[in-house]
Design goal:
The protein has 178 residues and is an all-alpha fold. Helices cover 72% and strands 0% of the residues. It is globular and about 45 Å long. 34% of the residues are buried.
Length: 178
């Protein structure tokens, strides 16, 4: 039986813009900066300001698409090692989220976990979230951070700092060609 949260019904969104924001955060993380580069942060904020409400919704959908793709990759990697992706990914993600109270207010953690579980079970994270109403402003930063944490985990597993970004970029290239 098909679910209304099936990925085939989900808008893909602006995956390129979402990936740019995620990659920017990863680069700051890998450069061991304690704070984001102010110039880089200003450019991201200027970019976000030009999007308008419709553009922001597109980037949110794009971030959810990326989370879905990352969780699919992690699910396949876990299956290759007879592991359950939810058991392998979610507890450590929650532990990391709890260590970051300025980024993940306690009330946003269940939503981010729901996104991960939805994606891990083959559901669209954005359609799963949409059934509870519009995104709140308090959820925007945690959504981006959730995608960044997944990307960093994939990079660590693959021992390649650019693997997660390349994974999405290659998928985008293939979808444009075919």
């Amino acid at each position: 039986m098909s679910s209304p949260c099936d990925p085939e019904y989900a808008p893909v969104g602006d995956v390129g813009a979402a990936l740019m924001m995620i990659d920017s955060q990863l680069r700051a993380l890998y450069d061991s900066k304690t704070e984001a580069d102010p110039e880089q942060q200003r450019m991201v904020e200027q970019f976000a300001a030009t999007l308008g409400p419709r553009g922001i919704d597109e980037v949110l959908d794009g971030a959810c698409t990326i989370i879905y793709m990352f969780m699919k990759w992690l699910r396949l990697a876990c299956e290759d090692h007879d592991k359950d992706v939810i058991e392998y990914v979610v507890p450590s993600q929650v532990a990391t989220m709890r260590m970051m109270p300025r980024t993940f207010r306690p009330e946003t953690i269940p939503t981010m976990v729901g996104l991960l579980v939805a994606a891990a079970t083959g559901l669209s994270p954005n359609l799963w979230r949409a059934q509870y109403g519009r995104w709140t402003e308090a959820e925007l930063n945690p959504l981006e951070a959730t995608a960044v944490l997944l990307a960093e985990r994939i990079n660590r597993i693959s021992d390649d700092r650019d693997f997660a970004t390349r994974l999405i970029t290659e998928a985008l290239s293939k979808s444009e060609r075919g």
